[in-house]
Write a structure and sequence with these properties.
Elements: H1 48-64, H2 72-84, H3 93-96, E1 98-102, E2 109-112, E3 116-120, H4 121-126, H5 130-145, H6 148-156, H7 164-174, H8 178-187, H9 200-217, H10 223-242, H11 262-269, H12 279-286, E4 290-291, E5 299-301, E6 304-307, E7 312-315, E8 321-324, E9 329-333, E10 336-344, H13 349-360, E11 373-378, E12 381-392, E13 395-405, E14 410-419, H14 427-432, E15 434-435, H15 438-442, E16 447-453, H16 460-464, H17 473-480, E17 494-499
Parallel strand pairs: 1-3
Antiparallel strand pairs: 2-3, 4-16, 5-6, 6-7, 7-15, 8-9, 9-10, 10-14, 11-12, 12-13, 13-14, 16-17
């Protein structure tokens, strides 16, 4: 979570946005050594309109996803993407595409008009070879080549982007009703970008094209299936750790669940297919990549959130989990959901809180207002809170805004939703917010990928024990490396662990 620039809540991430890029491998920079076949179709240039649209949206997306990663890992991803882009058949594909490695802890990849292609560092860390990177971006390429964006444009113009957690809140906790609309208000993204949600047929076509691009580039086309399997396994692990079965992965926010596509992708690729993986090159080039939250945006560690730059920390209630975004932290549990963000304080906390409630009001509905606003002091920080009861088709619910004056015109606040009369579940969280010292801030370290060489005597369990987590060390290690409990390791093999 970065410092917010307004009082409006911002969702944790964006679902996929429409248009994508193709990949091709080449010997340079560790890409596949096989020469690419020439694309039979006549080149099509990226239009000036698309270039202008993409250039306008690019800075917004960088802000939404924590900015661009710089350095050797980013250069490697860019080189793979730009070299493979010629498979699209678009004129000047290599030079016309801007490929960005995003500083985001969510598993996501997408592209927008104008040849702007994005993959997050977290999704890149989940991959185990260069062919999988090509497969992910190749799928997005398929949307471009098939002109899916143009075919879905009219539908996109009728829909504002809604983040995955916002959809869960409105659809699972609140239902598809007027209170569901309130949930969308609370947990929707601040970005005004439009989603292009593809049909299942279009997704299947993009998968097929992505596999075709892998073959043309000399990669093993089965990589499309293996990366989808890793995504499905990662999603299942996260749901298990959070104690929920309804968490929608970022990859599936507008795409079909990867678990349903693994077998189909393998069938299309061919079980006996061959091609380049470039596994060791890929692993050595992503070594050192930040894993999970970047301290510059705050760190989630279990139920604790610490922001060493903004110098505060708080804890979620028992039974809740947190997801950190570039502008907000979402707190989720079986009995409710909340979000923490900040804004400029230009007046009193009372007016700040009333503005936050007004922002929750669904379009066309009477403005939501708190029954009263009470002053408080939390760990020496001036604070205030208000509660509003809202009637929904599934019953009454309470919306709480709890705000803090950090001085210098900066405020932070929680917005929390739960069943009526149950708002007390958040009291421990509201009371936990506190400032941290410079030494406490300096002790916050990022997790990062450490690519290590398996030594004689190393086992899956011994390597898993080195993972920088307090829970599920073995499960995390297996999913991260695309392994199972029956896999065997060989001396000299490269594997990924997560360290501080």
């Amino acid at each position: 979570m970065k410092r917010a620039i307004g009082s409006r809540l911002v969702q944790v991430g964006l679902p996929f946005i429409a248009v994508a890029v193709v990949l091709q491998a080449c010997a340079a920079d560790g890409t596949a050594s096989a020469k690419s076949k020439s694309v039979a179709s006549a080149p099509r240039a990226i239009s000036a309109t698309d270039k202008a649209e993409g250039a306008k949206a690019h800075p917004q997306l960088l802000a939404e996803f924590g900015g661009a990663v710089t350095g050797p890992q980013a250069s490697y991803v860019t080189s793979v993407g730009q070299n493979i882009a010629v498979q699209s058949g678009l004129g000047n594909a290599r030079s016309d595409f801007t490929v960005t490695l995003l500083n985001s802890p969510v598993n996501n990849a997408f592209a927008i008009p104008g040849g702007y292609v994005y993959v997050t560092r977290q999704l890149t860390a989940l991959m185990n070879n260069e062919a999988e990177l090509a497969g992910v971006l190749g799928h997005e390429v398929g949307h471009v080549a098939a002109r899916h964006a143009a075919k879905r444009e009219s539908a996109a113009k009728r829909n504002q982007v809604l983040g995955a957690l916002g959809s869960i809140l409105s659809g699972v906790l609140l239902g598809n009703n007027e209170l569901g609309q309130l949930g969308q208000k609370v947990f929707s993204t601040g970005s005004q970008l439009l989603t292009l949600k593809y049909s299942r047929a279009q997704e299947e076509e993009a998968d097929n094209l992505g596999i075709t691009y892998l073959k043309r580039a000399g990669y093993d086309p089965r990589a499309m299936s293996t990366v989808l399997e890793s995504l499905a396994r990662q999603n299942a692990l996260e749901a298990q750790l959070r104690g929920t079965s309804n968490q929608v992965p970022e990859w599936a926010s507008t795409h079909p669940d990867p678990a349903s596509r693994v077998r189909a992708a393998m069938t299309r690729a061919g079980a006996n297919a061959t091609g380049t993986l470039n596994r060791d090159t890929f692993l050595s080039r992503i070594d050192g990549l930040v894993y999970g939250d970047d301290p510059k945006q705050g760190i989630v560690d279990g139920r604790n959130f610490t922001h060493p730059v903004l110098r505060f920390a708080f804890s979620a209630p028992d039974g809740f989990f947190m997801v950190n975004g570039s502008s907000a932290v979402t707190i989720s549990g079986q009995s409710g959901k909340a979000q923490f963000s900040g804004g400029k304080l230009t007046g009193t906390l009372d007016s700040y809180i009333r503005a936050a409630f007004a922002a929750l009001t669904p379009s066309g509905q009477a403005q939501i207002t708190p029954s009263s606003i009470e002053s408080a002091s939390v760990n020496g920080i001036p604070a205030a809170y208000g509660v509003a009861r809202v009637q929904g088709s599934s019953g009454q619910m309470d919306a709480v805004v709890f705000a803090y004056d950090f001085g210098g015109g900066q405020a932070y606040h929680f917005v929390a939703l739960t069943q009526a009369g149950n708002a007390g579940i958040y009291n421990s969280m509201f009371k936990s917010l506190h400032r941290i010292s410079a030494s406490e801030a300096g002790s916050v370290k990022p997790r990062q990928l450490d690519v290590v060489t398996v030594k004689s005597g190393d086992t899956i369990q011994s390597l898993a024990n080195r993972m920088a987590f307090s829970d599920a060390k073995l499960e995390r290690f297996l999913v991260l490396n695309g392994l199972t409990s029956t896999s065997t390791l060989k001396a000299g093999q490269l594997v990924k662990i997560v360290t501080y």
